[in-house]
UniProtKB/TrEMBL annotation:
The chain crosses the membrane at residues 90-110. PROSITE patterns: TPR (PS50005). This is Cytochrome c family protein. The keyword Transport applies. It comes from Deinococcus malanensis.
Length: 347
């Protein structure tokens, strides 16, 4: 930000110098301007009379007076040279350069200043949108798989999904074993009905899911493969498979939060059948996470507390954790069983 402010300041100063410099080069004052003007007027008058002379007897006197006038003009110091033309050229050059510098500031400083007001993700999306025409033209010109992938990534990340479909589709025609293109094209096809309002046929849905599964097989260590696979399983109602894929995503990307809502929604569906999970969701999930992996509160899966210690903290509370003395015996025992099972499963 400081560098951008310095750049704008330099641009303004440079523009000001260029605009004012012609004024410094203006013509110096002529100390003999008054007598010079009078002699030039006398010279012009005498020349006019000589040009229109009808009485030749007057010619010698007029020629003598004209010669004396010219001699007096010659005796004066030379008049300072006029810089009007040079000043005009400098002024026009200054205006042109100032305009160029202003444009440079507009396309460098101003966009960067505006991007500073956005968070990192929003700024990246804006830059991706700005780059789309260039990336699209490059891909169509070179017909190269990597160029189509760069265009597809920028389009997908900025939410320009029609271009992402075209770019990833062309990339897969050139190289069908590209996990990013497979999974992103699959999820775009699977969710296409939500954008277009057209109902997806079973065959289309299965084809989209196949693309995502293939991507996960080709790139099992890429977090996004499991994230999108989890979303696909959830759409087909395969909650256990979806949870497994989403938990794998969180293992590969511990800071990723894109699966939280889906995990919570799946757990909520499961909680309607399991009273212990229903109790946990109502009393504990907001702090310890939907699967006990932690959030505002610590991870229950990483806990080393004994069952009695867990019971005491749950009933009496500790630190920022509130007490839950009103839990029934069955609810409390169910929660203790759940926490101990998670301790065995680990993170």
């Amino acid at each position: 930000m400081i560098l951008s402010v310095i750049l704008l300041f330099l641009i303004v100063v440079a523009a000001g110098v260029l605009m004012l410099s012609p004024l410094r080069g203006s013509t110096a004052p002529d100390p003999d301007a008054v007598p010079r003007a009078a002699l030039e007027a006398e010279r012009d008058r005498l020349y006019s009379e000589l040009g229109n002379l009808t009485d030749e007897a007057r010619r010698p006197d007029l020629e003598r007076r004209a010669a004396l006038t010219l001699r007096e003009l010659d005796n004066l110091p030379p008049a300072p040279r006029s810089h009007a033309g040079r000043t005009r050229r400098m002024a026009l050059t200054g205006v042109a350069l100032a305009a160029l510098l202003t444009v440079a500031g507009a396309v460098t400083f101003v966009p960067r200043w505006q991007l500073k007001s956005l968070d990192a993700g929003e700024a990246q999306d804006v830059l991706a949108v700005l780059n789309l025409p260039r990336l699209k033209a490059e891909a169509e010109r070179t017909q190269d798989a990597s160029a189509y992938m760069a265009w597809g990534k920028a389009a997908f990340d900025s939410g320009t999904y029609d271009q992402a479909l075209a770019a990833y589709g062309n990339a897969l025609k050139l190289n069908p074993r590209q996990p990013e293109a497979l999974r992103r094209l699959g999820i775009l096809l699977l969710t296409g009905g939500e954008r277009t309002g057209r109902e997806l046929s079973p065959d289309e849905a299965n084809q989209a899911a196949l693309l995502i599964r293939t991507a996960a097989q080709l790139a099992p260590e890429e977090a996004e493969s499991h994230l999108l696979l989890g979303f696909a399983f959830a759409r087909f109602g395969q909650d256990n498979d979806a949870l497994a894929a989403l938990e794998r995503y969180r293992t590969l990307d511990p800071k990723g939060r894109d699966a939280d809502e889906m995990i919570t929604a799946i757990r909520a569906r499961q909680n309607t059948k399991d009273p212990t999970l229903r109790t946990y969701a109502a009393s504990c999930a907001s702090c310890h996470g939907p699967t006990g992996a932690g959030g505002l509160g610590p991870s229950l899966r990483a806990s080393t507390l004994s069952r009695e210690q867990l019971r005491q903290i749950t009933v009496q509370g500790r630190g920022a954790m509130p007490a839950f003395p009103d839990l029934s015996a069955s609810q409390l025992n169910g929660l203790l069983d759940l926490m101990q099972r998670w301790q065995k499963e680990g993170e």
